Amino acid sequence: MNKVIEIIKNKDLSMKILILGAGGIGGFFGAHLIKAGVDVCFLVREKRKNFLNKCGLNIISSKGNFSVKPFILNKNLPPQHFDLIILTNKSYDLIESIKDIKPYVKQAVIIPLLNGIQHFDILDNEFGKEKVFGGVAYVSTKLRDDGSIQHITSKASLKFAPRSKQNINIAKSFNEVCEKTDFECYLSENIELDLWRKYVLIGTTAASTILFQKSLGEINRTNNGKSIIMDIHKQCKNIVFSSGYDIGVEAENYNLNLITDRNSLIKASMLRDFEAGKKTECEHILGYLIKLAEKKNIDCNLIKAAHARIQVGL
Questions:
Q1: Residue 81 CB-half CA count within 13 A
Q2: What does pTM read for this prediction?
Q3: Mean per-residue pLDDT, 63-82
Q4: Integer Rg of the chain from CA
Q5: What CATH number is attached to the domain comprising 36?
Q6: CA nearest 87: which of 79, 95, 78?
Q7: Which of 102, 113, 153, 231 is most buried by a 10 A CB count?
Q8: pLDDT averaged over the chain?
Q9: CA distance 188 to 162
Q10: How many other C-beta atoms lie within 10 A of the C-beta of residue 103?
């Protein structure tokens, strides 16, 4: 049974945050922010809204289960003021998500926690680069059939920063807020590079688990699985390098330790969506990597194979 947390808002944490989406990413980080006493509001679809109002937001984790009662935005009321808006939608819902948050942006800045890179051009054109921070979430979660959120691994961290020289004070304030939570947080010194580093990792995880339709651990326990995963990582890394970003030795070692773990339970969310017959982020993640590779004549045959696996269907 989950421990129900009675929330008392911390007066020292005056930042008001709107989170679009309460699934594996938005729900996880939002619940931890609420648990720390932060003023958080969710903007969700009607079905999820009804569930959250009835059952609350439930986190299942090896670090301890807990439940919070989230506040759900009422779109029929006059728009509220927010300091920060966090986007956790799928890439293919970006245009609809922009329409949803537009009445609430005003002075707020936006942190998109979407996978990939391609969405920044759209958001910058709509709101201006100074309002669109970079954000990277390192966490493996799953939205369970019962509506709860399962934290699959013990690690959970958030890295963010402005992509321009503006709004640094908001970034510092959000960092102070996050330091009160149970997840790790970092105010990045080079968020553009961090975004591309994460792209290498997510591209590798997606291509690998899609190609074999197994977890990273299951692939690594085969005779040749580890070497294939490492080859996919090398292709992703080379593509990103050709775009002007060297992920560096530290990030590469972190990635390799993660993706070659023989006991890893990690599967890309793309695979879970694919096997459930849902729409996937294939084009946004793998398709864009292929597009970048072809521009610079970079080998990406394994990424193309994973991309083709999605196109073939179940």
A1: 4
A2: 0.92
A3: 91
A4: 19
A5: 3.40.50.720
A6: 95
A7: 113
A8: 94
A9: 9
A10: 11
Nearest to 139 by CA among 150, 130, 128: 150
Using left for φ > 0, alpha for ψ between -120 and 50, and beta otherwise, residue 147 falls in left
The C-alpha atoms of residue 113 and residue 91 are separated, in whole angstroms, by: 10
Strand partners, 136: 159
Q: What is the CATH number of the domain that holds 293?
A: 1.10.1040.10
- Tell me what the mean pLDDT of segment 239-264 comes to: 97
Range of the structural domain that residue 100 is part of: 3-189
Question: Is residue 57 within 8 Å of 26, Cβ to Cβ?
Answer: no
* 75 and 167 inside one domain: yes
- The domain total for the chain is 2
Q: Is residue 39 pLDDT above 90, yes or no?
A: yes
pLDDT band at 12 (very low <50, low <70, confident <90, very high): low
Question: Do residues 183 and 50 share a domain?
Answer: yes
d(CA 255, CA 247): 10
312/228 Cα distance (integer angstroms): 21
| List of E strands, 21-94 | 39-43, 57-60, 66-68, 71-72, 84-87
